[in-house]
Amino acid sequence: MTTATDTASETSRNALAPETIEFYREAMQALENAHVPFLVGGAYAFARYTGIVRYTKDFDIFVRPADFERALDTFTHKGWQTERSFPHWLGKTFRGEDFVDVIFSSGNGVARVDDLWFEHAVEGKVLDYPVRLIPAEEMIWSKSFIMERERFDGADVAHVLRCRAADLDWARLLRRFSVNGGWRVLFAHLILFGYIYPGDAELIPRRVMDQLIERLRQDAPDSEDDPLLCRGTILSRSQYLIDIYRWGYHDARLRPMGNLSVEEIAHWTVAAEEDGDVTQYQALESENQ
User: For residues 71 and 36, is the Cβ–Cβ distance under 8 A?
Assistant: First the structure.
């Protein structure tokens, strides 16, 4: 039986150069030989869960944080160039113009790869190579927080929900969003789902919506909550800089509330796509000093 992942692989074989395909396969084989556990995400996992096949040159490999350095060292030993592009979540390995992303977290520090990603991974084949794909729940979790000016993954979330709602582990998904007020982000996507697909709104279990509605109804500010906390920076690394650097809000990504250090946040922010945000960041940072 042909799956959407098979179709995505076939699309890649038709669109990618043979040497690129071989590079991706060699990367997977190298990790397997080095006993570095990994999962494949990106377009291949998305195709598996939605049937939507799209061409992309990105090849995303997910590893546990503890295996990040081992994965990159494995590629270095093959003679490939490697870089720790953003040491708090992403590295890359290159051969010529081709590259593989090695990921152990989301850029905002929220969706870190842990054992549950591997426990609930799905068997599949990518470019005729047997692999395990990241779970649909963790795909939803990581994509839900991407709300940049130049990229919003809400459509991907809606498509995964439409195709997989009946099979999702909703209890685990709710737990994923339970930290640092994340349940509101999930709730927002579920409400949007009913707007996007009014005839399919019932695909979201009533018990899930009732639970979130009740939580919203009972939610009240805690006396220990930071009245100047801004979680907008979790959703976008550039659009809420004004809040932090001019309006005096506190960045929710910063430890101990979040998972990032001051240095990691600065590196991640400066690297924002060149749409004026970098200049804005530097000006605001100077103004704040």
Answer: yes
Token pair of 32, please?
A: 């397997």
* pLDDT band at residue 15 under the 50/70/90 scheme: confident
Which architecture does CATH list for 4-134? Answer: 2-Layer Sandwich (3.30)
Residues with Cβ within 8 Å of 100's Cβ and at least 6 positions away in sequence, in order, are 23, 24, 27, 59, 60, 61, 75, 92, 93
Adjacent-strand bridge partners of 27:
none
- Any alpha helices (H) in 89-146, and if so which ranges? 115-119, 136-144
pLDDT of residue 58: 86
Contact 148, 240 (CB under 8 A): no
- Closest by CA position to 134, among listed 124, 145, 144: 124
Nearest to 110 by CA among 235, 262, 251: 235
Tokens of 158: 């809606």
Count of CB atoms situated within 10 Å of the CB of 71: 27
Q: pLDDT band at residue 32, thresholds of 50, 70 and 90?
A: very high
pTM for this prediction: 0.92
DSSP 156-200: HHHHHHHHHGGG--HHHHHHHT-GGGTHHHHHHHHHHHHHH-GGG
DSSP 57: S
Q: Where are the domains of the chain?
A: 4-134, 145-218, 229-288
